[in-house]
Amino acid sequence: MTKILVTGSAGLVGIQVVKDLVRENFDVYACYNETKIQFGVPTHLDLTKKDMIIDVFHTINPDLVIHLAAKTDVEKCELQKEETTLINTIATEILARESAKQNAFFIYVSTDYVFDGEEGLKKENDICDPKNFYGKSKLNGENTVKKFASQYLIIRTSTPFGIHSTKKSFPIWVKENLESGKEISVLTDQFTSPTFVPNFSKMLLEVIKKRITGTIHLAGATRISRYEFAKMIAKKLKLDTMLLKKSEIQEMGWNATRPKDSSLDVSKANKILDNKPLKIEISLELFLEQIKNSTKF
Questions:
Q1: What is the torsion angle, in degrees rounded to the nearest 10, for the CA atoms of residue 72, residue 41, residue 60 and residue 155?
Q2: Which helix (H) or strand (E) holds 227?
Q3: Check: CATH 2.40.110.20 for 3-160+195-217?
Q4: Residue 112 in contact with residue 193, Cβ under 8 Å?
Q5: What is the architecture, at CATH level 2, of domain 164-192+222-262+278-292?
Q6: Which of 62, 69, 252, 293 could form a disulfide with 8 if both were Cys (CB 3.0 to 4.6 A apart)?
Q7: pLDDT at res. 295
């Protein structure tokens, strides 16, 4: 049985991935730092501690590593650069090196923020030029994987959304505020490729089984602004779209620069995978159905 080490297993994407891997009868070691999950073999791992990373790796001796864990709060990354580097870059290098030593396949999940955001629908081989420290730390992670892992796949994704007990996806944030009658400011000039987490997980399982290497974009099939996405959510739920207030990035007063258009071209995934990237109309419908059937909401 294939042994898989998954970092970030308690996160929005990680929980879904671990569940799906267990369902497929893989031997899954679900690494977490603070929140233990009840799927696979729960394994404590602090990515800021080199010795712990190496010890966990040698104890498990995995055939495959899926490195999902990252410091992702863009503002905190800008202000906490040392910790961001430890988690997003140095830990990635250690895991990539250990994978190479044991001939384990290494999957690194990266981000649309490695691009400059001046033009959208970026392809896998387009030039990366991140504009904030989060994006730089993830690009440095990509480069360490290319340098040190013997067999690898780099996956870039964009704006994941799904159900999680503590982490609120963008659609949930919109839904809860509008249901409470609260006005919310939503960006009209930031475009992404929103990715339904169960769809991402299915695509990930397929690339594992097909042993695809190199770099691939696994994201939603629709380029859309935050505002248009919020409006679509409101209309689907028959909520008041007048509560959505248009805003622009320059008004936000953020420390970290945000890319205006970090949408991803997913034509490669669409061509080679049976599980295709979903258009936003379909993924949102599935997500809202999931919410309706969930006890968490």
A1: -40
A2: helix 226-236
A3: no
A4: yes
A5: Alpha-Beta Complex (3.90)
A6: 69
A7: 54
